[in-house]
Design a protein that fits this description.
By secondary structure, the protein is mostly helical. It has a single domain, classed as Hypothetical protein af1432. About 60% of the residues lie in helices and about 0% in strands. Strands 1-2 form a two-stranded antiparallel ribbon. Helix 3 crosses helix 5. The mean pLDDT is about 95.
Length: about 200
Amino acid sequence: MYPDRKEAERLLCEAEKMNPGPWGDHSRTAAHCAECIALRCGMDSDKAYVLGLLHDIGRRFGKRHLGHVSDGYSYMMSLGYDEVARVCLSHSFNNRDLNAYVGDHDTSEEETKLIADNLNKMEMDDYDRLIQLCDSISGSEGVMDIIERMSDVKRRYGFYDQDKWDANLKLKEYFESKIGMDVYQATDKENYRPG
């Protein structure tokens, strides 16, 4: 289950009021990218848009790092949106490795266990992979070059797991082979701006 576009947009706007910041426009860019790529490879573009829009919804609860993953998962599960809850969890773990998370591990034991247990049970699908890719090319001002985006994250946090870096590049290749074109062309990188 996942909300329709109108409800997803309402949830994001409400969350931004609780914790303003560039993450809202990053999420809009991810939604745009997910929709554009999904349209070209036979996936449900509305679902992709909603999942991209809400992948970081855990940020509504404040400035947390790994905590935004468990917060988003728990919040979406409480609303009955299990497919959104899934990407709140999966978007940060393209290798399902909790130690590869870029940022502070600011979760309680219980939250860490919730993330680890659900990751271990999860079989990644193309929606998980799509949102992972879109997260890695989406900035708050528009679509970014994947290397530029990952380098920016590395500068901010002082670390970027090499396996995660390589997996993101493989995701880009995977979706480009599915759509038969460059993802930047598919997402109108040069012209798209959120908001």
